[in-house]
Specification:
Blueprint (H helix, E strand, L loop, with lengths): L3 E4 L4 H14 L4 E5 L6 H5 L3 E3 L5 H10 L4 E4 L5 H6 L1 H22 L2 E3 L2 E2 L10 E3 L10 H20 L3 E2 L1 E3 L1 E3 L12 H12 L1 E4 L7 E5 H13 L11 E2 L3 E3 L1 H9 L6 E4 L3 H8 L4 E2 L2 H7 L7 H19 L1
Parallel strand pairs: 1-2, 1-4, 2-3, 4-5, 5-8, 6-9, 7-16, 9-13, 10-12, 11-15
Antiparallel strand pairs: 12-14
Helix pairs in contact: 1-8, 3-5, 5-6, 7-9, 7-12
The structure holds nicotinamide-adenine-dinucleotide and 2-amino-3-ketobutyric acid.
The site of 2-amino-3-ketobutyric acid (AKB) has 11 residues, from loops.
Length: 319
């Protein structure tokens, strides 16, 4: 049985990965940590939780020892928009946190999952069917930390034998925990607005095409990769994974299938628009499919149907 620790475990991704890991491996074997402890009572109340700054190696080592941790899902990071607002803090958390976790993994013999992002690509990367191995010269601080993180994870694998693995996630869409300051957040916000008032004002231009994924597929990707046979992995950090690619106009059209009359308006945020313009239109994820059997379940229509059903039911329950 695995003994797992999550950093940043109360965020958008962590709150859903931790629930699935607790179902699979047993509640007591999945330790959730985060710098805050004021959200998500379901997770706080359902198993071991520690308030932890992931850069505090001494405290993290105590928790790892106490719970005989063998696998770390390192999810604490600043996303693209918040990183651009405070680049030094982004460097400090995204690189400092990762280095601390990799050192702990080396000392304690842990495997490590670290998400990278489509943000690891830049304006000079091939934009369509972006290959697994290609030019990576990102222009945002978030992207700089993601490329450096991929390289650092590879380094700890070949230099020290740490079992590091990761994926390049696209924008993640979920109905559980709100997103934490990304460029792709519009694709979550739009569903809440559609259910509340049949209208949404988008901060990206209508034709801005980006890769996206529904959260159940993102959770599956992380766990499947960590379960994969290491002998089949040629890439480790980090695999391109995608499920769909659309622009705000397309997403509004999918929503109109279920909410006729839904309207999308635009008020462009230049910072997030510039970040989005520098990212690929759509990724090619052949290596993930061949090396560990990656296959997404949701397309834009099935995701839209599910998002709107869940949010509409929640609205009715809340009165
Ligand atoms: P999030 O912002 O929702 O959650 C991050 C969590 O980290 C928060 O709960 C926050 O409280 C915590 N945190 C912040 N500083 C911390 C610190 N010093 N120590 C410990 N915890 C701290 O982010 P997310 O969307 O869950 O992203 C998780 C990972 O996935 C990140 O590496 C992110 O870059 C990557 N990713 C996310 C997306 C997406 O669309 N959400 C897409 C691609 C990659
Ligand atoms: C962001 O927009 O910053 C994230 C990501 C794609 O990494 N959602």
């Amino acid at each position: 049985m695995k003994h797992i620790l999550l950093t940043g475990g109360l965020g958008q991704l962590g709150s859903e990965i931790s629930s699935e890991l607790r179902k699979r491996y047993g509640t007591d074997n999945v330790v959730v940590t985060d710098i805050r402890d004021d959200v998500n009572e379901d997770i706080l109340g359902s198993g071991p939780f520690y308030k932890l700054d992931c850069r505090n190696g001494k405290r993290a080592a105590e928790i790892i020892g106490k719970h005989t941790i063998d696998t770390i899902y390192h999810l604490a990071a600043m996303l693209s928009a918040t990183s651009e607002a405070d680049p030094l803090q982004a460097w400090d958390l995204n690189m400092g946190g990762l280095l601390t976790v990799l050192e702990l993994a080396r000392e304690h013999g842990c495997a490590v999952f670290t998400p990278s992002s489509i943000g690891a690509f830049g304006p000079t990367t091939i934009k369509d069917w972006t290959p697994q191995d290609t030019l990576q010269r990102p222009t945002s601080m978030y992207g700089v930390t993601k490329v450096a993180g991929e390289l650092l994870c590879d380094y700890y694998n070949h230099r020290y034998g740490v079992d590091t693995r990761g994926v390049r996630y696209p924008g993640l869409i979920s109905n559980v925990t709100p997103p934490g300051g990304g460029t792709t957040d519009y694709a979550v916000d739009i569903y809440y607005a559609a259910v509340d008032r049949k209208e949404y004002t988008c901060f990206l231009k209508g034709d801005t095409r980006l890769d996206m994924m529904y959260m159940p597929d993102a959770v599956k990707a992380a766990i499947d990769l960590m379960e994969a046979d290491p002998d089949r992995l040629r890439h480790r950090n980090a695999f391109n994974v995608t499920a769909m690619s659309f622009c705000p106009e397309d997403l509004a059209a999918y929503i109109r299938r279920y909410i006729p009359g839904f309207e999308i308006l635009y008020s462009i945020d230049p910072v997030r628009q510039a970040i989005a313009n520098s990212w690929p239109n759509n990724l090619e994820d052949y290596a993930a499919r061949v090396e560990w059997g990656w296959e997404p379940e949701y397309d834009p229509d099935s995701m839209t149907r599910d998002m709107l059903t869940v949010l509409t039911n929640r609205k009715k329950e809340d009165g």
